[in-house]
Amino acid sequence: MNELAYTNSSFITDMRNIIIEARNNAIRSIEYTRMMMYWRLGERIFVEEQRGQNRAEYGTYLTKGIAVHLEAEFGSGFSIRQLELCRQFYRTYPNANDVRPQLNWTQYKLLFRIGDDYKREYYELEAANHAWTGRELERQINALLYERLLMSNDKEAVLAIARRERIPEKPTEIIKDPMYLEFLGLKREAAYYEKDIESALITHLQEFLLELGNGFMFMARQKRILLEDDEFFVDLTFYNRLLRCFVIIEIKTHKMTHNDLGQLQMYVNYFDRYEKLPDENPTVGILLCTAKNDLIAKITLPEDSTNILTSKYELYLPSENDLLEEIKEVISLADDNEE
Fold it and tell me: What phi-psi label fits residue 144: left (phi over 0), alpha (psi between -120 and 50 degrees) or beta?
């Protein structure tokens, strides 16, 4: 038989997949073993530390002494700082069974620095559920994803979705406001056309899907709608498998207007009447703009409207203090509108 007979067959593909899977499993196994080594070091340090009368002072003395011996034999990977991280790792996760093999040491170093237990659990679950990389987890923490979701949801609902105890029932349980598009790399002082933002989002689609949230699948760019002799084009079309509906996004490089909302409402109506299947949920429309006016949205849209959402976008991540202040301002405006 010809030696090259299988070179283009599914047989070779299967063989490659077996090797790749084995390599990936080996890497995960090594990483998990390393994490458990750090956990056991942290446990041992903590247990020994409790024997000292002045725990804080004795703990510092203890890690310094250990580091001198371990660094001399095993290298800089066992410095004072690293041993302190091991101790913190154990203190945060005292039960070894709670250490997830899906996550790595880089991710855990980000997680156990989060003081709020609920917030830490949310990021831990989401990172494991959606196979976030360390960089993606760090980005979501820095962008205050958890806090932004709490702006329109309660803590129990956010955690229940992360724990996979329930699926999202409302668009506000997934879609965030504001949205941060710092990954586009666009300068904040420059003026852009809508097509520039749209093109950049397509180029950085993976990062945009991370910012959008769970369950989004890209469908189309500039989807053509023909109404008799008039043509219209929807900027971006997605489908969300959790909400089981189309999600269409219109991008505006100016402050939101009632005309923008009217245009988006027309697109949503079209999708509901001509695109969605009978067993699918109503289409969600998102107006992505540089600034919002919630009162205009409230007056323009029907009182029972829940599927037209507006979200302010920023081309860079603000400082944590600025972001928290912006979130407080949005919550305050929402409370005023309810009154």
Answer: left
